[in-house]
Write a structure and sequence with these properties.
The chain is an alpha/beta fold. It has 2 domains: 135 residues, Rossmann fold; 74 residues, DNA polymerase, domain 1, CATH 1.10.150.240. Helices cover 40% and strands 13% of the residues. Helix 6 links the parallel strand 2 and strand 3. Helix 2 crosses helix 3 and helix 3 packs across helix 4.
Length: 218
């Protein structure tokens, strides 16, 4: 049986649920993807220069910068950011997550969550979905000293889980995350819900599936 390490943001959590919050403050929901990409850009820059900072701080900073350019906000930029960040803390999981997670747990795999966000947010997400008890460990890169896809983040997860890389597999929707995990020796599963083209410059995943229900592990 494997130790199955799940990415959290977008892999488990469904960011599309933020659409209502963006609408409520007068911002177009199409900005969700731009905001999250900007958050990652800023976080990766910090990680490889002055040092990592907490997800919430980086995400809010990126959100303020994005919302400050909007002309039709119904509230102040600060209030709009507060509204979106509050909604982010209440996200649901994707529809395929509950059954997919339980199937892997029933198969005897040990489940671990590894997030670039906080353990608290991960725990609340899983509790809302009724899945907290399926996970043996909830981990954050805050304790690793480096954001994924830095090798140190995966090594921290392996060390804390007490497993060798060959006995662990990362499931994620982000190719950059899977590429990083592969360099650290983990097996990888690309959860491709949007049927995106895999970047040719990255190491190919061991599995490429379109739903968590399609994951099959030895």
């Amino acid at each position: 049986m494997a130790t199955v390490i799940f990415d959290v943001n977008e892999t488990l959590s469904d960011l599309s649920a933020l659409s209502a919050a963006f609408d409520r403050v007068g911002a177009h929901p199409d900005l969700i993807e731009t905001w999250f990409a900007g958050t990652l850009r800023d976080a990766f820059t910090l990680n490889f220069t002055t040092g990592p900072q907490p997800f919430q701080d980086v995400a809010r900073s990126a959100l303020l910068g994005l919302l400050s350019q909007e002309d039709h906000l119904t509230v102040s930029t600060e209030e709009a950011a507060d509204t979106v960040m509050a909604a982010f803390a209440e996200l649901p999981v994707h529809p395929d997550v509950p059954e997919g997670v339980r199937a892997l747990a029933r198969a005897g795999h040990r489940l671990v969550a590894l997030s670039n966000g906080s353990v608290e947010n991960t725990e609340q997400l899983l509790e809302r979905a009724g899945l907290r008890e399926e996970f043996a460990l909830l981990l954050s890169v805050d304790d690793a000293g480096a954001w994924k896809p830095d090798r140190r983040a995966y090594e921290y997860a392996l060390h804390t889980s007490g497993v060798q890389p060959r006995d662990a597999v990362l499931i994620a929707v982000h190719p950059w995350d899977l590429h990083g995990a592969h360099q650290a020796g983990l097996r990888t599963v690309f959860l491709d819900r949007t049927r995106a083209l895999w970047p040719g410059v990255f190491t190919a995943p061991d599995q490429h599936v379109h739903s968590l229900l399609d994951v099959v592990l030895p």
